[in-house]
Amino acid sequence: MAETAQQIADDLRARIDSGEFAPGDRLPGEPALVRQYGVAKMTANGALKILVAEGIAQARTGSGTYVREFKPIVRDAVKRLARSQWALGSSIWSADVEDRPRDVADLDVSEIEAPKWVARALGLNEGATVICRSRLYLVEGEPVQSAISYLSADLVRDTQIAQPDTGPGGTFKRLEEIGSAPERFEEDLRARMPSAEEAERLQVPAGTPVVEIYRTAFTGDGRPIEVNRMLLDAGSYVMRYRFES
Amino acid sequence: MAETAQQIADDLRARIDSGEFAPGDRLPGEPALVRQYGVAKMTANGALKILVAEGIAQARTGSGTYVREFKPIVRDAVKRLARSQWALGSSIWSADVEDRPRDVADLDVSEIEAPKWVARALGLNEGATVICRSRLYLVEGEPVQSAISYLSADLVRDTQIAQPDTGPGGTFKRLEEIGSAPERFEEDLRARMPSAEEAERLQVPAGTPVVEIYRTAFTGDGRPIEVNRMLLDAGSYVMRYRFES
């Protein structure tokens, strides 16, 4: 009895899990699947499409379908935002990918009227302005995350936070210098499919979701001091959180 | 000039964002889009498919395409796993959805040989057995999460943890009673598309990713005491983490 695309996908997935096909390996193509499983070309194609949709495999135009390489960035939230990280002048971003070539692109700093959700999150009046820092993070030349942070313009307009280069230790170190060090963080995460625009900006392969993180930083006396909206290529990241009972 | 499916999807998305179409509203169908935008039926259908793939809309067979209702479960990791939650006899699950009808289904408890990753995570020898607790969590009758927890069988075989009903305060309270209270947690999150089997079990709509969480619980002296692999319907959840700098 000929198998269905789903059955062939299940079989290929089991062979990937068993290690028969390793990350980066080329999977059998349509002709090989047709021969091996005795199915129509369309069924073979459907099986490969299922694996691509699950994010297990990646299609490369004109070359075939490959087992996806998952060499995740471990985004350790507690470690990366620890005072010891930024107080001594390191960047938060450097904590994520210590050992891989990394870059920041499309840096844009502007003063804008706070979007409603930003004003609400920062406890600002409607119409207040914010310094808005937008950038794209790259690892090994590939975009993996976009981020936009917002801070009250009245508070940071005259600091290096309003300049493209925030200096050693970045925004958090500068906030500390003006008596508004972040002491507490809250991160809200959602996973969803990207819009076409987001998929293009992050260059995520088809069938890959994104993780949207809203982070609020609070001072010791509970003032929200920064909000940051991050969009991560889910295929590139493991998010790690550590906490106590 | 006739518009493309992408342009129509962009326009519909903007109308949803503006509030013209609210969550749960029916979007214009193919015939309405054909009339309104002067495009072919296939283009109109393509636009709706884009919104479904993005998770913004949901197709209901024979009825049309609707703006997706997102009434998320806020999974506050720190709050739900706080000792004050389980020490007094509450369930962790009840912290997530205090005010909505919730249920647990397909509860299964068994003793099995530890899968390799479980043995590694719990620091057990190869071939050691574990008590394995598997269940499905429902909110308002809909499955939102599956979870399987693993604990050393030698440690918990003779406790209520090996019984279907773990009693008030659940597994963690029982661990405390045998001198192995969990004091520290680590959660690793990934987002990806579900396999066909996972999509069926969680009944996730097409185009909805899942969030996979591996949680390890440690005792005060650093022993890993429980690992739990959770699979969440990403469309139902916001994951919240709070921590200090």
UniProtKB/TrEMBL annotation, chains A, B:
Superkingdom of this protein's organism: Bacteria
**Alphabetized Gene3D superfamilies for the sequence:** Chorismate lyase-like, Winged helix-like DNA-binding domain superfamily/Winged helix DNA-binding domain
Q: Which residues form the HTH gntR-type domain?
A: 2-70
Looking at the Swiss-Prot or TrEMBL record, what is one Pfam family this protein matches? GntR
Tagged with keyword Lipid metabolism: no
List keywords of the entry alphabetically.
Answer: DNA-binding, Transcription, Transcription regulation
Q: Which CDD domains match?
A: WHTH_GntR
Q: Which SUPFAM superfamilies match?
A: Chorismate lyase-like, Winged helix' DNA-binding domain
SMART domains linked to this entry = HTH_GNTR, UTRA
Q: Which InterPro entries match?
A: Bact_HTH_transcr_reg, Chorismate_lyase_/UTRA_dom_sf, Tscrpt_reg_HTH_GntR, UTRA, WH-like_DNA-bd_sf, WH_DNA-bd_sf
- Provide the leader sequence positions: none
Q: Does the keyword rRNA-binding apply?
A: no
Can you say what this protein is called? GntR family transcriptional regulator
